[in-house]
Amino acid sequence: MRRVYMDNNATTPVHPEVLEAMMPFFQDQFGNASSIHWAGREVKKYLDEAREKVAGLMNADPEEIVFTGCGTESDNMAIKGVAFTHKDKGRHIITSKVEHHAILHTCQFMEKTGYEITHLSVDREGMIDLEELRRAIRPDTVLITIMFANNETGTIFPVKEIGEIAREKGVIFHTDAVQAVGKIPVDLKKLPVDILSLSGHKLNTPKGIGAQFIRQGTRLSPLIHGGAQERNRRAGTENIPYIIGLGKACEIAQRDFQKRHKHLRGLRDRLQEGILRTIPHVEFNGHPTKRLPNTLNMSFLYVEGESLLLNLDLEGIAVSSGSACTSGSLDPSHVLLAMGKSPLLAQSALRFSLGWANTEEEVDYVLEVLPRVINRLRAISPLYQKHKNEKE
Ligand code: PLP
User: Fold this and answer.
1) Given this model, what pLDDT does residue 324 score?
2) Are strands 295-300 and 349-353 parallel, antiparallel or unpaired?
3) Can 70 be counted among the known catalytic residues?
4) How many whole angstroms separate alpha carbon 280 and alpha carbon 303?
5) Beta strands 210-214 and 282-285: pairing type?
């Protein structure tokens, strides 16, 4: 059976150059980066190089990069680390309703420990209101945590403006940039961001490596205590092969940025136009322009998203009906509900997230299969029959 993978916001395949770069660190280069003998010193050199490459992709300083186990760990570290260090200032955190569960569930946990959380709303395009943010800031606000780009719709948030408001009010600003880094420009010399989280496996590394940018002078306590690794920011012997992989992935993302951006956008637009041309009763979810180049979220009315997903899977097409962490649950997406979409519309949503390896031919295959599957599902949908009867 033909296989087409269009779920790159869930995870990405490992880039062959990334795997190649990692290989020596499973065998010959096995030293502990903290050891002072030759085996450790050599590995330490490569560790430093990887840090430079990660920093380079975002125009940060290498000293501002801390390696972590994943995006979720980085998000936890930002929220808990800032909250703990600044607890004397206050116990109020601002976030948005459309964050990933790595943020929302960490905030829920903080609520149980006595913190107050304000969840900013979003409009129908998934965008926050900067005036609402301004109004939400209080003297006891210790952290604003708002994502760079949404994983379900691809909507890109006004990170620069959020950071400016945070600076003006003296509040630390963290952004979950797991879906943004490598896909859109992230220049930390220009953006007033204090802490930024990223994840390797959205960037063609294996799963289980992440990083945190912590601007010099930003105070937050570590999540994991122990040795002095990562300048005391994250204890534990470094996962060298994966760190090397992340360094390589960031180097490639920087090198191929323009080419990938153009390629992804072209494919995404071809897919979007094809769907709108061939399938009736479709609603677009997300921001029409301020959007990741690889992401397309659409609701196919009168069809249940999970059934659509399973039927596409039978044809070899891998897409998603929301974020990977919530699939399997039949709850409609919290992101689409927050955007004011009805539960029915939210339940009929599909997310296509393209990767650099996708081709025009794959997009055309999806455009050939999708109308057929939707027609079949609509033919047995009581809701669609009702809609047709009402029209007649
Ligand atoms: N934040 C966002 C926006 C994500 O999309 C994801 C993964 O889907 C995460 C955080 C979690 O990253 P990880 O899977 O590396 O823990």
Assistant:
1) 47
2) antiparallel
3) no
4) 12
5) unpaired
Is the CB of residue 12 less than 8 Å from the CB of residue 234?
A: no
Are 181 and 58 contacting, i.e. CB atoms less than 8 angstroms apart? yes
Whether the CA torsion 157, 163, 166, 168 is positive or negative: it is negative
Claim: this prediction has a pTM higher than 0.85: yes
Would you report the helix, strand and coil content of the chain in percent, each value rounded to 5?
45, 15, 40
Q: What is the atom index within ligand 1 of the atom nearest the CA of 210?
A: 15
What's the token pair of residue 212? 């945190």
| C-alpha neighbours within 13 Å on the C-beta side of residue 299 | 18
Helix (H, G, I), strand (E, B) or coil at 9: coil
Question: What pLDDT score was predicted for residue 65?
Answer: 98
Find the 57 Cα to ligand 1 centroid distance in Å: 19
Place of tokens 């079949």: 376
As a whole number of angstroms, the distance between CA 56 and CA 251 comes to: 8
- Between CA 114 and CA 92, with CA 107 as vertex, the angle to 5 degrees is 50
Q: For the chain, report the end-to-end CA distance as a whole number of angstroms.
A: 40
The stretches in the chain having pLDDT less than 70 are: 322-330
* Predicted local distance difference test score (pLDDT) of residue 389: 86
CA of 181 to the centre of ligand 1 (A): 12
In this prediction, residue 388 carries a pLDDT of 83
Any atom of ligand 1 within 6 Å of the Cβ of 147: yes
Nearest residue (by CA) to ligand 1, atom 9, is 71
Q: What are 349's strand-pairing partners?
A: 299
Query: How far is 242 from 21, CA to CA, in rounded Å?
Result: 10
- Range list of H helices, the chain: 16-22, 38-58, 71-85, 101-112, 130-136, 159-169, 240-255, 257-278, 305-314, 334-338, 343-347, 360-379, 382-391
Q: What are phi and psi of 380, to 5 degrees?
A: -110, 10
Burial class (CB in 10 A: 0-12, 13-18, 19+), 210: buried
d(CA 162, CA 159): 5
User: Pick from 248, 294, 202: which is nearest to 47 by CA?
Assistant: 248
